[in-house]
UniProtKB/TrEMBL annotation:
Domain CENP-V/GFA: 21-139
Organism: Hirsutella rhossiliensis
Molecular function terms, GO-annotated: carbon-sulfur lyase activity; metal ion binding
Pfam families: GFA
Statement: the UniProt record of this protein carries the keyword Metal-binding: yes
Keywords of the record: Metal-binding, Zinc
The protein's name: CENP-V/GFA domain-containing protein
Signal peptide residue numbers: none
Family stated for the protein in its record: Belongs to the Gfa family.
Length: 161
């Protein structure tokens, strides 16, 4: 089996099977839609979501859908989201300031896969069962995230004052 990478999680913008998935927080203060390959586990070739095993993703119950920034259209409330940063403090974990729903992770353009955002897949409306990556694949991607975070941390220590 080949090494998993973020390209496997990103929907190709040209894929004719892409679907717009409406998403919202619990209270509806934030809503948006995401263009992605079919997410339902019943689809012929469902796009995998990542169940990350880092501490914050486990606490938030994330099943992450990765998308390029231009594959997300905001209806309302995106600017009103609150941010939380921990560890390397380089990525914004977004949550609704009204109901507290964990919305996703904004990598702020520094992710090696490109200008991407990870959205909590459980926010997608009318998607009842998501196809998860295997645990082995998730562990490898988690390790990649750790390396990226350490590199950003090191750069911050050396060059940002």
């Amino acid at each position: 089996m080949s090494e998993p990478n973020f390209a496997d999680l990103l929907a190709s913008p040209e894929n004719p099977d892409n679907v717009w998935y409406p998403c919202s927080c619990h209270c509806g203060a934030t809503s948006f839609k995401i263009l992605h390959e079919p997410l339902e586990s019943s689809a012929p070739k469902p796009a995998p979501v990542l169940k990350c095993n880092c501490s914050i993703c486990v606490k938030n119950g994330y099943l992450l859908i990765y998308a390029f920034r231009d594959q997300i259209e905001y209806t309302h409330g995106w600017d009103a989201l609150r941010n939380y940063r921990f560890a390397s403090k380089t990525w914004d974990h977004k949550f609704c300031g009204v109901c507290g729903t964990s919305v996703g992770i904004d990598f702020l353009g520094i992710h090696p896969a490109g200008n991407i955002i990870a959205i909590n897949g459980v926010l997608a409306e009318n998607v009842h069962e998501l196809a998860e990556l295997s645990e082995e694949a998730a562990r490898k991607i988690y390790r990649l995230n750790q390396v990226v975070s350490m590199l950003v941390d090191e750069c911050d220590k050396r060059f940002v004052k």
